[in-house]
Every structure is written in C-alpha cells, then in structure tokens.
Amino acid sequence: MTEASRAAYRDLLHPRLVGLGATLLIAVFVTDLLYWRTLLPEWSTFSIWLLTGGLVLAAWSGVAFVLDLVLGHVLAVSWGRFLALTAAALLSFLNAFIHSRDGYTSVVPQGLALSAIVAILLLVIGWRGWSVGTARPARLAAPPRAAASMAPPPLEGTGR
Amino acid sequence: MTPTSRRTIPALAGLLALAACGRDPAPPSTQYGANPALPAPQQYVLPPTRIATPVGWGRTGTPAAAAGLAVRAFATGFEHPRQVYTLPNGDVLVVETNGPAAPINRPKDWLFGFFQGLAGSGAPGGNRITLLRDANGDGQPELRTIFLDHLNAPFGVTLVGDQLYVADTDALLRFPYVTGETRIAAPAVKVTDLPAGTIDHHWTKSLTASPDGSKLYVGVGSNSNITENGIDAEDDRAAIWEIDRATGFKRIFASGLRNPTGIAFAPGTNTLWAVVNERDEIGPNLVPDYLTSVRRNAFYGWPYSYYGQHVDVRVQPQRPDLVASAIPPDYALSSHVAPLGMVFSTGTSLPARYRGGVFVGEHGSWNRIPLNGYKVVYVPFQGGRPSGPPQDVVTGFLTPDGKARGRPVGVALDRTGALLIADDVGNAVWRVGPAAAPPAVVAAR
Question: Which chain A residue shows the shortest CA-CA distance from B41?
C-alpha cells in the first residue's frame, strides 16, 4: 500500500482481526482432519484451543467493526459478507461445545463436519479480503467536530 | 455489545434449553442390581449438569437417619475429610485430603475447575490424618490429635500388625504403629510408587489388605473420563493393584475398573469387593456406578465397553479382543451416585436388618438431572451376594431445593458397631447408632 492510497482512504480496523481469527478457525479443519486420521488426542486438543482463539478474535472483530462504524470509517456495509462471517462464528461457537466432548465424538463426525463448513465459508469470503464494508475516502470523511460529538455520520451512498 | 455477541446470547440460551429440556430419565430404581436398564448412549452439545451449591449444616443441622437409627456429629471442623478408619483399640482416623490442582489441558478443564469450586469440591484438603478417641463410647470423642501430617493427597489407610499403611496419591507409605499412640513421629517408608503424574485425574488411592495380611490392594482410578488424555496416560490405571507386603512386588489384580474408590474383603472370605465410579457424559442413566466382587485377572470393560460388551464409541481405536473378554459387574447402584466409600456391616449394635451387607457412601455428582446419590445406602447380602435393592440409611444431605448441606464419602464402623461417615462438604464425621427407642430418635434430632 502506498502513501497516497493510505492517505486517500480511511483505515479499517476490523479486517485485520477478522483475518487473524479466520486463520485460526480454518486451521481447526486441518487439526480435525489430522485427529481423524491419526486418532492422536493431541490434535483434538489443538482444535479446541484454535477454536477458542478464533472465537475470542471473532468477538474482538465485532468490537472493531462497531468502532469502524462509530468512527465513520465505513462508507457502506456488505451485509451478505457480514452475515456469512457471523454464521461462521456461530457455527464455530457450537463446534466449541462439540469439541468439549471427551474422546472420538468430540471431533468425528459432527466436529469435523462443522469445521469443514466453516473452513469453506471463510475461504470463499476471504478470497476477497476480510473487510465487510468499503472504507470511506478520506476527503469524504465526516469533519472532526462531528466525530468528537460521538454521533455516527450517516452512511452515504451505496459504495458498490 | 458486538454484533457477534448479540447473536450468540440467544444461541447460547437455545443450547442450554436443548440440554435442559426433555423428559426426566427413568428413576434410579430401574438401575439397581444385576441387570440395570441401560438406555442408548447420547452425545450432548452441553451435557446435563446440575451443581448442588454447598450451604453447610449450620450450628445444629444433621442428616436424617432411617427408622431405628439415630445420627449425631462425631466431630466437626475438619479440612475436607474423605475417609474414616477404626484402629483395633477403637481410635478413629480421619483422612483430611483433596486432590492436587488439575492442569488446564483444554478450556473445559478450566470450566470443570470452576464447577468444582461451585460444588465445594475444590476446598483444600488438610493432607493429614486426625485421630479421635472416644474411650467411653458415648459418641463424643474426648481426645483429638494430629496423627500424621504433611501427606500428599492421602486416601486409603489400613493397619496390618504393627504397620500402618497410607496410600498417598503418588506412593504407598508404611509407618510403624504402637497401639494407643496418638501421633506417629517416625518417618514414612515408601513401599512402592503409585501412578500420579501431572494430570492425576482420579487421584484417590483406595487401600485394603488381604485377610491373612500378606497382600495389599490399591484401587487406582483412570486418568480421564474416557481416555481424552490419550491411552498412554492410562498405563497401570483403572485397575486394582496387588502388592506383596513382604517384597513390594506389584501386579495388576483386575483391570477395566474406571475408578475403584472403595475396596474391602467380605468378612470371612477371600473375595475382594469394590465400589466403582463409571463414565460420564453419555446420558443421565449411563453408566450405572456399581458394587462388585472382583475376580482375579478379570477385565471389567473400561474404557472400551461397559457392563460387558456395551461398546463406548468415544474410545478409538477400539479393542474388540478386550471387549470380548469384558465381564459385567455384579450389582448396579444406578447412575452418577458416585460411590466413594464402602464397608461391610460386621457390627451387632445396629438393628438386625443391617447385618451382613454393605454400607456405601454415595457422594453424588453434577452429571445428572435430577441429582442422584448424596446419601448413604445399605445393600443387603444373602449367601455372600447382594440380595435386594439398596436401602436409604442416611439422607438429608441435599436441601429440598437441591443445595448440598454435605456430601458423604468414606464409611467405617466404630468399635461399638456404629456407622461413621466422612462428609467433605459439611467438614464433619457423622456417627449413626441404634435409636434406643422411638422417642430417642426425636430427641436426637
């Protein structure tokens, strides 16, 4: 990214955290596969900690996204992408409970199936980056006074 | 609140409802004896769990005894008492103990520790043995001393001749004992190491001696609920060990016993009996805990199967060869009662219907809704075998709204034949004797 482009668009916080969390949740599918093929319980332990880390980052991503909205850095929200990521987070939350079972059924079959669905979902979404909105061009940003009053600026235009 | 958590809260509530709803399981009476009803195993998103919050007994509260019996506090103010043992001169040993801190291998372990704290099972143990002497036999000890201190999660105690054996969680120890002494100052001699390690999931080591005193038997619990810590962590566990007292040589006497928390020889026989805690999280009525005679070299199923050939799919890879050899236990006590102590009723002071059978201390667990156990029961015997459903002997450990005044653990008979019960939540030892006459029951309350 060049100096010019960084100056031209507002910097969004949430895509960085979404990207980190999604990486962990995609990795769950890999460690689940390894458990299924090797039956070594260490791999299922990797899975549950990856799930936990992914869910913590998903929660922080949500905070970051709200912050992006409040600061008026988002020009338009892509609700389809937002819903897909939320679905991935919720399925992973369910999967954390499945993965908290003891023994084989903590992974096979439901845990593995859920982590596969989540991995596919995240890879499809992530192909176009981890933002769920378009950044507002810097020159169109709300004036500093409006931001200081904590009022979220209106979302202008469709941005699509 | 984040967009994510706005949605997760209703989702969590939904999951909780999913776990909580559904009909009550079949009553425990369907799972007593040789042929318990075994429903199909379930896999839960959130296993049914109910914590009995500890509330204690207050200043005057006591458990309730069955008709013909009266219960009084023998002594109170202990640090997590779990085992009682009567020496030949009538002195009573109280083992104050709790397990070592469990490591956090999974997020669930943290939650498990949190639940334990809520249920009062996380209180530190005294790591010592207290001696109580009731010389005049009135049920109120006149002397109380610290008999042995600085132990490491002790549980089983047994005296053979002039040697007192104590089963710490990591070693079987031996101390010289002189009749009448109130404190042992001599250092411990280690007989043998016992499986402990960093996980030490089921940490209690139950202990008894063969009738001729030549062999010692140690009950060693599994290192997991159902091998989630790996099968290698289960080496020499979920078994009863036989240790030669003279040489220290040890072998596995019987295996596949998930957590044999109480072991004892039937009086006048060479038959070893055990109470065993079975596996969790596959349903409110699975798997029934049991009382069984223990056959030499027998395999009782854990982890691969339960009650004979009922395979547990959570264990992979399976071992069909071992499952084929698994034998069912003698007598189911019903599910999640958590029997933690047993004693054969050899006394003569209790009413005649309590002779010859087994008293079992049922600690209760949080793995069932509604709760089960939290009482002391009596299993009648005839011809050396259990001969009827368990009978409630001491109840009232739970309040009507499901809080725990106490939780019974180890049981023993005192010199007079009265039943002693260690209560690790009420931090008391209860003494159950005969009610002199019906009005005396009222007076004792």
Answer: A105
Distance from CA of B312 to the nearest CA of A (A): 10
Better pLDDT: B119 or B190: B190
Q: Choose among B367, B432, B363: nearest CA to B398.
A: B363
Confidence (pLDDT) at B340: 98
What SS3 class is residue B211? coil
Here the tokens at position B144 are 């109380």
Buried b (16+ CB within 10 A) or exposed e, B250-285: beebbbbbbbbbbbbbbeeeeebbbbbbbbbbbbbb
Q: Which residues of A touch B313 (CB under 8 A)?
A: 104-105
> Which pTM does this prediction carry?
0.90
Tell me whether A70 touches chain B (CB under 8 Å).
no
Of A44, A66, A103, nearest to B3 by CB-CB distance is A66
Asked if B107 and A39 come within 8 Å (Cβ–Cβ), the reply is: no
pLDDT tens, B63-100? 999 999 999 999 999 999 999 999 999 999 999 999 98
Size of interface A-B (CB pairs under 8 A): 85
* Residue partners of B352: CB distance under 8 A and separation at least 6: none
